[in-house]
Each structure stands twice: as structure tokens, then as C-alpha cells.
Amino acid sequence: MSDYIPFAAPCFDTAEEEAVLRVVRSGWVSTGAEAQSFEEEFAAYIGVAHAVALTSCTAALHVALKAYGIGPGDEVIVPTMTFVATATSVVHAGAAPVLADVGPEHLTFDPDQVKSLITERTKAVVPVHLFGRMAAMEPLRELCDSHGLTLLEDAAHTLPARDGDAVAGRAGDASAFSFFATKPITTAEGGMLCTDDARVADEARRWSLHGLSRGAVNRYRPGHSAAYDVDRPGHKYNMSDLAAALGRAQLAKAGRLHARRTAIAEVYLRELAGLDRLELPAADTATNRSSWYLFPVRVHGHRRDAFRQRLHALGVGTSVHFEPLHRFTWLRDHVVRTGQGFPVADAAADTLVSLPVFPAMDDAAVSRVVAAVRRAHDEAGR
Fold first, then answer.
1. Is residue 240 located within the same domain as residue 278?
2. How many structural domains is the chain composed of?
3. Is 380 exposed, middle or buried (0-12, 13-18, 19+ CB in 10 A)?
4. What superkingdom does the record give (predicted)?
5. What is the pLDDT of residues 122-153, one digit of tens each?
6. How far apart are CA 127 and CA 265, in angstroms?
7. Catalytic residue among 66, 115, 123, 183
8. Which of 52, 283, 297, 319 has the maximum number of C-beta atoms within 10 A of its C-beta?
9. How far apart are CA 30 and CA 33, in angstroms?
10. Does residue 183 have an active-site annotation?
11. Same domain, 48 and 144
């Protein structure tokens, strides 16, 4: 590690280098056999029948909504405590996002709040498995089933995670994963849609590639017909073989990457316990396990931003997850309903700081973060 510990960094070795070189040397770098293999391997890892490799989790959410026929006149309930893409993918599908407040423990969906927002226009509910911890899927599943709603998981943070019998990525009708540079596994930029529904997977593929009936790999190879049809005004969301090669190398070591994140989180939970102005995230239990994509702490009793600046001065990078959606200008003006409040999200938002918890950190770096957090905490209390 350098003298400065960043908030996040990818964890690559020769496996990723060799994977990318393999594709470069093959002469085929766009969507092809590598992307197909990544889809098959990822589907098997999650435990679903189908996976569609895409350019982002946002794209996965978008084409999933389109595949379920959700569009103009429809409403989709999303949490206010999430990244903006959860809501804007609904807008891109032509539907209206409806913001819900979250529960106080994990800052994921409050099922009672979701229930209160269901109308005759509601067509889907999108729980976000925040920070790496799953939302409460059992009551949300029951709620969606009773109202005939699609349950679409935003699983961008959760590879892997589980809550009892529920496993992130296969607890809803479909799920969307992110492979952004900071995520549990990365393709630099990328995402995946997972589902057991063959129709939804096929619709997603059509929407993701201009509405084409056949992709380039099935038109340019020797002996293949060049003919294709276009049955919809689709998008350009297909993943390249270069990105898929990175993803396959990362997926092969996903267990080790998760184990390292978990080990770092356990050190933080042990060594930072007892700091009176620092609220730590919940620990794993035998039945509820986080991906530890993030390690969010809540800073009480002094200004969060000053705490972050002190950590920066001590050589530790941090981030903030998230500014609630209802505070952003466009969503405040176009999405938030008159008189609607979000007291739980508002109470938490200005206290949150995400500490480094990426697998490339060595033990010395973890110890430095602990020492810096303790020092920043003590100095702020003087």
C-alpha cells in the first residue's frame, strides 16, 4: 500500500492480466463467447437459470423493467436511501418512481412504508440491498405477491449476501448486480441481470442490443447468415468480451475476495467497539451475512465532514453512502409527493461515513485505518 489508503481499489493479479490478453489475442473483443461464458458462470454462482451481461447495473434495472412491461402510467416504489440510478432507471423506462423511507437498523426498505405507498398504478417494488446487507425480502415477497407486483432486487452491493433462506440475487423475480470498479467483483464498468424467467431474459437481451434478433457474433462468423430483424427501439447495453474476461477472473476468486472483506470488517468491529461517538454496522450472524461491500459508520456528536477531513489528513480515504434521493433537486421537484417526509433517512444521512474495506488492503493498512479512526474520534471529542 502507498502512504495514502484510498477508500477503494480493485484487487487484480496475473489472472486478470492473462484473461484480458487471451481476449485481445483472440481477435474478438466485443460481445461473444467470453460474455456468454461469464453469463453461464455467474448464473451458476447465484443459483438462477439465466444471466444477461450488460454495461451497468443501471442498464440491468432498466431492461428488467422494460422486460416486465413497466412504462408510462406505472409507478415503481424505490427507497430514498440509494444511489440515484435506482430511481432514474424507472424514469428511463417511462414509469414514475415513488420514494419510500427506510428502517433504522440497516437503512433498507421499511415494508410498512412500502405498503402504505401502493396504489392501483404500482407495478413493481425495487428493494436495495444496502452496503452489502440484504433488505427484508420475506415480507416484501408476501406484499408483492398479494398485490400482483414485480419484485426486482437492486443487488449492486451484495455479492454474496444472505438473510436466512433468502440469497441476494435469487429472492426476487429478477435482480441487478453491479461490477463497477469498487464493487465486490469488477469488470471496470458492467452489470448483470439475473432471473429464472426465460422470457424476461430474452426480452432483456433484445432491449439491450438495439432490439436486434441476432447479435454480431451470430452474424459475422464464417457460415452464419448476416440477416437479422429489429422488433423494438432497443438500447446499447451489451457487455464486451474484454469486460467479461475481467469478470470471469474476478468471479473465480469471489469467495476469497469476500472472505478478505469479511476479515477486515471483523477487525473494525472488534477494534473500534466502544468509541462513544461512533456507531458501527451490525455484525454478521449465523443466518444474516453481508457482502461487506461497504463498512458504514455513523458519526455522532460532531460534524461528519470534519471527521472525514481529519481522516484524510491522517492518510485514510473515505466516502459517503448515500445522500438520500429526496434531497436532490430533480427528484425533490419531480418525484417527492406533497407533504412526504423521510425522517429515518434524514436522521442517518448526515452521520454516515464509509471506511476502506477492499480486499487489496494488507493487515498493516487495516491497522492504520483503525489507528486513524481512533485518533480522529478522540480529537473531535476534545
1. no
2. 2
3. middle
4. Bacteria
5. 999 999 999 999 999 999 999 999 999 999 99
6. 24
7. 183
8. 52
9. 9
10. yes
11. yes
